[in-house]
């Protein structure tokens, strides 16, 4: 799952989404199996 989330983060970066927007989308998609906000922000 982590690899899938990293690809999703890279995609959101290309769309110029903020870390908060990206985290919210990941939370919707992956529910409880989501990376933490600090990990998303680091990417």
Automatic annotation (TrEMBL):
Domain of life per record: Eukaryota
Cross-referenced InterPro entries: Mos1_HTH
Domain Mos1 transposase HTH: 6-43
Pfam family, one: HTH_48
The protein, known as: Mos1 transposase HTH domain-containing protein
Natural source organism: Camponotus floridanus
